[in-house]
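Explain the record.
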Amino acid sequence: MNDSKSDQAKDEGASPELNTKNLGLGVALGAGATVALAAVAGLGVVYSGAYNVAATEEHASLGHWALDTSFRNSVKARAEGLTPPEITPQMLEAGAASYKAMCAHCHGGPGIERAGWASGMRPRPPYLAEAAAHWEAREVFWIAKHGVKMTGMPSFGAAHDDAALWSVAAFVEALPGMTPDRYAALGGQVGHYGDGENPHP
């Protein structure tokens, strides 16, 4: 009789541990099933063509947030160890010429709008005379060198050395607050592709 009571007490003492294990197993199985269903649903969207890739349609707010947040955090993490060189007037002059040849058609400049076709890009390229205030020179350098997937921003690193790209980054950093006259004077009129038909916002 005593042995039976002792065994019963042991079983009752072990029961919370068994319940915890069962609960953990149930949560793991539930999480696994949820991931599997999400994967199947994702594959269904991919293979069915249900997602509209047309650039005539804006990104959904959730998609825009996810892409923009990933973009900013990715650039910040990868550019963190870069040290910009000292900015010189020669760098600004060289950077202005390169910017006007390579960047102005998508990003505009003080007094210069984007090329009309750039407003049809998704995501729309930022108007850097304003947006550059939110980026550090080392981040602009990293973007120019490596490009950004799924944005239309190409990598210029294969065709331009670091010195040239630091000059572009220095010029971009100087864009906020730059007057149209100053913009026009730096780097000459090389490569001005803006057609002024579409506003930058």
Q: What stands out?
A: Confidence is low (pLDDT under 50) at residues 192-201. Residues 60 and 66 are 10 Å apart (CA to CA). The two ends are 86 Å apart (CA to CA). The chain is about 60% helix and 0% strand.
